[in-house]
């Protein structure tokens, strides 16, 4: 990723769950403001109440229990995913014109942020060819997904982003085929025996973003 001169980026951390519709509207507004040059870039750490989101490649057959939680169609890439308590979502609104105009590189950098964050907490996260997200090898050929990625880019400004499972109710994923993958499961830091909360995760994730994207966060907000 291109070096942007250690540019300041706003970091916002929400201490209570944010309704998805509210978060999506806020992202749309910030993307427009970044594009217009009237607001700084933003990385937003938050949590949602239980819901499913459908990306642009979502198949109706992958929504197994449509009445279980609210379902939102989004413009991000990818298929169905779950958001809920115990999962850290990071919405990433960065100006990719300043960062090489390379969406594949941007996604790889998001993957790297998750990998470095997990490593700081003692977990080995890995990429897998042909599968989006970050995976953990569990032995006996079993692999579980711990980090999801789904982004949208408008006029070279990104939004949506990543999700890392800290301690969600993993049974909530059973209402969908997560990201269209049927051969593997999902896991979390708690499921792996790692006793870490949002504070530890956020600290590691903040450092990873600063190092990978060559940015300096301007402030911590809530």
Structure characterization notes:
A hairpin with a 2-residue loop joins β9 and β10. 23% of the residues lie in helices and 32% in strands. The protein has helices spanning 20-36, 103-120, 198-213; strands at 8-13, 42-46, 51-54, 71-73, 80-83, 87-93, 126-128, 131-139, 142-154, 157-165, 185-186, 216-221. The relative contact order is 0.22. It is globular and about 50 Å long. The two termini are 28 Å apart. α2 crosses α3 (198-213). With 222 residues, it is an alpha/beta fold. The protein has three helices and twelve strands.
Compact description:
A hairpin with a 2-residue loop joins strand 9 (142-154) and strand 10 (157-165).
Q: Catalogue the unreliable spans.
A: 1-6
Number of strands: 12
DSSP helical segment count = 3
Structural class: alpha/beta
Biggest sheet record: 9 strands, mixed
Which whole number gives the mean pLDDT?
92
The fraction of residues in strands falls at 25-35%
Large-scale geometry? globular
Q: Give the topology string: H per helix, E per strand.
A: EHEEEEEHEEEEEHE
Distance between the termini: 28 Å
**Helix content bin:** 10-25%
């Amino acid at each position: 990723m291109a070096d942007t001169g250690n540019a300041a980026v706003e970091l916002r951390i929400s201490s209570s769950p944010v309704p998805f519709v509210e978060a999506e509207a806020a992202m749309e507004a910030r993307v427009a403001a970044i594009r217009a040059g009237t607001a700084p870039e933003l990385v937003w750490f938050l949590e949602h109440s239980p819901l499913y989101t459908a990306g642009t490649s979502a198949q109706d057959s992958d929504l197994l229990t449509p009445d279980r939680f609210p379902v939102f169609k989004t413009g991000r890439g990818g298929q169905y995913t779950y958001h809920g308590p115990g999962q850290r979502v990071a919405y990433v609104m960065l100006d990719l014109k300043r960062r090489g105009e390379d969406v594949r590189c941007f996604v790889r950098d998001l993957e790297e942020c998750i990998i470095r964050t997990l490593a700081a907490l003692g977990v080995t996260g890995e990429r897998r060819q042909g599968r989006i997200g970050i995976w953990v090898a569990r032995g006996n050929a079993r692999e579980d997904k711990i980090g999801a990625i789904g982004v949208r880019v408008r006029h070279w400004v990104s939004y949506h982003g990543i999700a890392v499972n800290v301690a969600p109710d993993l049974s909530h994923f059973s209402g969908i085929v997560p990201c269209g993958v049927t051969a593997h499961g999902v896991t979390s830091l708690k499921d792996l025996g790692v006793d870490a909360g949002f504070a530890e995760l956020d600290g590691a994730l903040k450092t990873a973003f600063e190092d990978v994207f060559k940015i300096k966060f301007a402030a911590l907000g809530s």
